[in-house]
Amino acid sequence: MNEVSSLREQILRLTREYSRHVHSGFRPASDPERKPWQEGSTIPYAGRVFTEDEVEAAVASTLDFWLTLGQEGEAFQRELAAFMGVRHSLLVNSGSSANLIAISALTSSKLPEGRRIHHGDEVITVAAGFPTTVAPIIQVGAVPVFIDADPITGNARCDQLENAYQAGKTKAVMMAHALGNPFDLAATLAFCRKYNLWLVEDNCDALGCTYSMPRQLAESLGVSENSPGLDEGPDRVVRWTGTWGDISTQSFYPPHHLTMGEGGAVNIVCDTKFKVISESFRDWGRDCWCPSGIDNTCNKRFGWQLGELPEGYDHKYTYSHLGYNLKPLDPQAAIGRVQLKRLPEFIEARKQNWITLRRGLAAQEDMLEFALPTHATAWDPEQGFRWDESGCRTDCSWFGFKIAVKPEATFTRTDLAQELDRNQIGNRMLFGGNLVRQPAFMQLRQDRPEALRVVGRLSDSDQIMNTTLFLGTYPGLTVEMLDAEIDVINRFCTAR
């Protein structure tokens, strides 16, 4: 046994040494051992940020060769839930799968009949965004109802929620916090409370963002003092995004705030019944809640009678939902546990990178429109953000730095994107733009016009689609890389 332990230690020591030699370009930008960026090299909009610690964790877990979700996964779920202050976090294999599980959970027969989502019921969402926020709504047989997006924040126009509501049909609101900018949670919560609707927060781009409101407003919305999150004192309630709704979702794909390579999570905010329901949909739809490889935690494995099965039929092979197998691997969770320890550092880096880009491009305000956090009304280099009179505030852990080209500019968004590409600067559109213009949704409307509903003209979502792109803010961006981005954009705008 000592020989085996010694061999394991040697493997892990060599693993760390190998990673330090090979992966130094992936270290955090603030790490003194980070490989310097060479002028003229690619500047990604996002990417993996890790050290030999993550590599060692992955190899150590693989040496154990449990592979499927096990002790590392259980530990990560506990640690993520503790960080966020939610009741439970449930690991899945992607953020898209997390969204599928979250909306599927709302269809469960274990929910009150009047609140569960049935075929043809409606879920309000936003037109501008990523398709897998919306696709699960359709995949469970519900109807997405699209409201417009604000071109400045990138988030839903929550003043359109009332116009989207249909009594007896609307059951939930499911929206993303766009590019790490929280949507108007106060307005959305007030709407959901008024009509007794579920709220699903797609928090995949927003891990580490906070939203705060006056305590008196929070109490009027049913946000109790014992709710999860952060507390800023007697007059304010401060909580992470992903902890205000009933269920929220995370993505751990490499561009996101922490990575497991692939992976995601479903956060059960307060109501613990969603834990068993969500686990069932994740784990083949089975009724049994025992983890893989563990039997009879209820001490009545052969004591159930469900459906038309014979009494005593094995509970591990009893299915209450039409589920999936959406678990990640245990080595992924081992990586995630190390990444989670870096999360506070990563959050601050994203905030600082956004500010660096904003200050560096301030001279281009005549041609470029920059994002503002929800509830902010303006920004200046000295005072920072100015806020509206709602009393609500947002603190963004930015996924990206959003830029829109103004109508009066002498160039287009495509011109700017092409210039960035020529200089090897990573940039992206705001995901799918106006989703209803995408081929898949156009085909859906042609095949089944009743499969989705649109509120208004979605002209602002069209504007986002036609004028907007974003740069990276991820914690692998060094000062030199940010300066290079700023220089390219400033020179391009000045020359035009």
What does this structure look like?
There is one protein chain. By secondary structure, the chain is α/β, with parallel strands linked by helices. It folds into two domains: 1-285 and 324-496, 3-Layer(aba) Sandwich (Aspartate Aminotransferase, domain 2), CATH 3.40.640.10; 291-319, no CATH class. It is 35% helix and 16% strand. The protein contains 14 helices and 17 strands. It has helices at 2-22, 52-64, 71-84, 95-105, 131-139, 161-164, 185-195, 215-220, 273-282, 330-360, 413-422, 439-447, 459-467, 479-495, and strands at 88-92, 122-126, 143-147, 170-176, 198-202, 210-214, 230-231, 236-240, 247-251, 264-268, 368-370, 376-380, 384-387, 393-395, 400-405, 453-454, 468-472. The protein has an eight-stranded mixed sheet with strand order 1-10-9-5-4-2-3-16, sandwiched between helices. The chain is globular. The protein starts with a helix and ends with a helix.
Descriptive terms for the model:
single chain; 496 residues; 8-stranded mixed beta sheet; 4-stranded antiparallel beta sheet; 14 helices; 35% helix; globular
- On the 0 to 100 scale, the average pLDDT is 96
Query: What's the total number of strands?
Result: 17
Number of domains: 2
CATH class label of the largest domain = Alpha Beta
CATH architecture of the largest domain: 3-Layer(aba) Sandwich
Measured by DSSP, the beta-strand proportion falls in: 15-25%
The strand order across the widest sheet is 1-10-9-5-4-2-3-16
The largest sheet is: 8 strands, mixed
Distance between the termini: 70 Å
Indicate the structural class. Answer: alpha/beta
CATH homologous superfamily annotation of the largest domain: Type I PLP-dependent aspartate aminotransferase-like (Major domain)
Which stretches are poorly predicted, pLDDT < 50 over at least 5 residues?
none
Label the overall shape.
globular
**Helical amount:** 25-40%
Radius of gyration from the alpha-carbon trace, in angstroms: 24 Å
